Amino acid sequence: MSNTNGNTKLRFLPTGSSLHKLSALLTLLLLILAFSFTSPAFLSVNNGLTVLLQTSVIGLLAIGMTLVIITGGIDLSVGSVLALSGVVAGLAIKAGVPVMPAMAFGILAGAFCGFINGLVITKLRITPFVATLGMMMIARGVALQLTGAAPISRLGEAFGQLGNGSFFRIVEMQANGFPKVIFPGIPYPAVLLVVMALIGGFLLQRRQIGRHIFSVGSNEEAARLSGVKVDRTKIWAYTASGALAGLAGMVLMSRLVTVQPNEGVMYELDAIAASVIGGASLMGGVGSISGSMIGAFIIGVLRNGLNMAGTSAFIQQIIIGIVVIGAVYIDQIRNRN
Amino acid sequence: MLDANAQETPLVQMSEIYKHFGGVHAVEGVSVDLYPGEVVGVLGHNGAGKSCLMQILSGAMIPNGGEIYVNGQEADLKSPHDAKKFGIETIYQTLALANHLDAAQNLFLGRELKTRFGNLDEARMHTEAQDALRQLNPNFKNLKDPVAKLSGGQRQVIAIARAIYFQAKVLIMDEPTAALGPSETSMVADLTLRLKDEGIGIFLISHDMHDVFDLCDRVMVMNKGRNVGTFHIEDVNKDDILSLIIKGTLPDGWAPRGESK
Ligand SMILES: Nc1ncnc2c1ncn2[C@@H]1O[C@H](COP(=O)(O)OP(=O)(O)OP(=O)(O)O)[C@@H](O)[C@H]1O
Ligand SMILES: [Mg+2]
């Protein structure tokens, strides 16, 4: 009994992975602090919501990416799958399907791409890097082929709801006849991100599938010998990643109220960076949704803050690249001790 | 030679098992059986094919030929999952633990306990694992540490606890005490005898002659993938076994040494 007490006491001290999360969170706060000094408009409600909105797409991708990375894999196809899902939804709407089912089709198309990734990886035994690299090109190719590389526009106001709508928006009519936004509301994409992150975290921490995902990434052979259905677990993870890419596609295209078949290029790299900054290990077996969400926000805040400070997009790339390497390096030093 | 058990159906019967990897003939037409409440030692030099034979029985390796019967019924063991359904539990030579998971998570891996709502029942898994581990090692601590941080002996204790927790009918122990200290080793010896008394059939792979003579009822010796002899333990002595292991034959002029004939 005295033992158990000792254990609970010890648990107040951060363990390896929560230490990483803590330092990532600290980094995020420091960034916010720094940017609010460099540009006064940074720390406003409106800008906060913008960051939230911008982060939601990367965040959704990062949830799926984290699941895949924990299995010891990687999913390079999410950016292209996002575009293909958008195209499927756009074409469905053009064919007369109502918005909701059309979006469901889009998400299903994403899940299907992920499922194929999983099959290729487990049944053909192609490494995840190569399999999803192939899917990255295939999905992009299909998206461009289906649309002739032209955007699909005039999709109707309902299509824009998901990306542009918000809860609790308060608008007041002024005496001069112009509306005044008192509270811009909580954007749907942000709410969606929170809901999906909670579901993802729940599945990963509290359900059998999550435990199996960790075990497969930690030691695939041990998982197999313990009776874990390794192939099924991996296929599940890639399918979830594809579906989330589809969902992210809906959010992004809806926000633009236009389907752009060449959207989402290199988004997979942001999603991977978010997971890795959040403490996921590309060797597998380590990672968390909460960490990846912090990682996604670090990238979102960096992008937004640098934009507001007038930094060029090229410099932004350089800085984010350095942040990713730095995060992994710090993690390695810590693991060595 | 083995007529003592002839009237019973064997718990496990492996017949004419073959396994090769390219040109390497790891298992060459080996037949062996196991009866309830019996410990059969599987002996042989390094690379003789002991682990391969046992992995075939635990469903971890698919043989190139041969049949396996469990309780007289032909069993098609395509995966470890299949074997576990037949009550075949294995302590693997490699231990088969996931380094990032803790003791309880490893013990219940693939067979997690769940709450009414299908969520993982961490609390129950933790207490059950604690009980199971403390039976083998009363001062087992670090239950919440990832097993990567544990000592070789502690890891082995987890692998053993996992195999016995799920009420095996057939237990395969592939060098279960290789990393254990003397007191844990004798604990495992006691455990082996207790499980045997409960009617469990045990295959024990060991290089330790003391263990073999203390625990086994019969021994089966493999040499270069072949079964070069199965004997009641009373019929052979240490030198006979060593000769079988090294040369693959009994010493010249050998006759059964024990009473059982
Ligand atoms: N997965 C594999 N792929 C290729 N060859 C293998 C594989 N597993 C075992 N072998 C080969 O099969 C032969 C038998 O190996 P096995 O592991 O059964 O030996 P063992 O009797 O258990 O030896 P030890 O006492 O060292 O554990 C060896 O020559 C080994 O190299
Ligand atoms: Mg072996």
TrEMBL record, chain A:
GO cellular component terms given for this protein: plasma membrane
Annotated transmembrane regions: 48-69, 99-122, 129-152, 186-204, 235-257, 277-301, 313-330
GO molecular function terms attached to this record: transmembrane transporter activity
UniProt keyword Cell membrane, yes or no: yes
Superkingdom of source: Bacteria
Keywords attached to this entry: Cell membrane, Membrane, Transmembrane, Transmembrane helix
Organism field: Parasedimentitalea maritima
Pfam families: BPD_transp_2
Name the record gives this protein: ABC transporter permease
Lineage: Bacteria, Pseudomonadati, Pseudomonadota, Alphaproteobacteria, Rhodobacterales
Membrane topology: Multi-pass membrane protein
